[in-house]
Amino acid sequence: MSDAPPPASTSIHTKGDLEFLFKLYLNKRVESQMNFYTTRIRENELNSDFTFTASTFVMTLSSLLATISASDPAGSLRALVIWSAILSALAAMLEGFRQLYNWDRQLAIYRDAKLGLERAALIIPDNDLLDQSDIGAVYPRMIASTELVLTNEVNQWGQFLLDKEKQNEQPVERIQTIGTEEQRERIMTDSYGPQAEQSVTQETAAVNAASAPPTDASSNGTVPSEASTEKDETPPAAG
Hints:
The chain is mainly α. It has helices at about 15-70, 80-100, 105-120, 135-170, 180-190, 195-210, 215-220, 225-235.
């Protein structure tokens, strides 16, 4: 019995198989994705142009009504003022709706992806030269280029969501709390200058000294305590 290893598998697609896979990928992946990008570009262009034109028209009409109502001294066209305010709110709503969906950014992403697919399709041979081309070399290059474009498009959507989250984030300011005395000193300083601050400091020190409890005379020579005073005033007992 021979110990030689079994022969390696040498199953290779035939040229007909490669041509079939090549055309299948080209029709179902590249051209289908190209049609999708074209449709989305047209849709986002229409949405962006419509909201921009509508908001501009409504804002212009609102300004016109406000001008007409302001030129009426008798005040008989007060209803135009109300309509002007309503149209201004409608124009602001349309502009906010346009910024919410950000159709211009979506349009840029789809255009870049379509342009990338068009560049990747440059390596595809023409139909009349397809039989003379090496499909085994062209097919892997076409797949790698196409999938790279689609991966970059997905990454752009992730960056788009991150940008939207950053726009929605609002910084929270930290409120610094200070004491009552410090507030008083700041008010006096801002109103009357440094001399007022010095007088306030001296007044605060005097109030703190007056409110301090008396200490024992034997400890530091200050005001004697009440107990020691009563003891000194007690007369000596008779012998």
